[in-house]
Amino acid sequence: MGFGTKVVTGEELAASTPVEFSAAEYGATEFPIVQAAVMKNAHDLALVSTALADDAEAAAEKYGVVEGTSFPVFSVSFTAIAGAADVQGIVPFTIDGVPAEVTVRMQTGPAISGTDLRDATGTIHFPDFTNQIEYQDAGAALNEELKAEVLSNIVAADLAGKSVTVTGAFQLVNPASYLITPVDVVVN
């Protein structure tokens, strides 16, 4: 029995123990990377929306990112006059060059829904996580970091009537309604 026993040091034991996932640490570490990637890959929203209207499949292939079986996510930017925010902090925009039948809105919180940021880069994949809960927590952590780093100084009600430049991402769930999750908001 003594010959079959392996003695391990504390360091070896610690190295072999799985690291517990920390959503807060993940969000803080990964948000700047995701933000930079969305900003680098952002296309003009009018261009993307026109391409989607012409041929959604071709537009998704050219401008979008598809993660697994999800709808495509598009990184976009635009400058437009903000409308009046609703009680959920959703700000509408009318954007030159975007088809009139398409509603464009930006979420500002307090709740940020969706996994647009997690899925926008095409570099964050389900197999990178232990399970579905961690994968969902990663998306929520990015949204929390967005609120802290970008949206903490934005008051949705104060944007109405102002020219705003937005860079962000949206998942094409409804071709007639784009809900942008911003990574950068500049009031001009």
From TrEMBL:
Descriptive protein name: DUF2291 family protein
Q: Name the Pfam families for this protein.
A: DUF2291 (PF10054)
InterPro entries, alphabetized: TM0957-like_sf, UCP033535_lipo
Could you tell me which species this protein originates from?
A: Cryobacterium serini
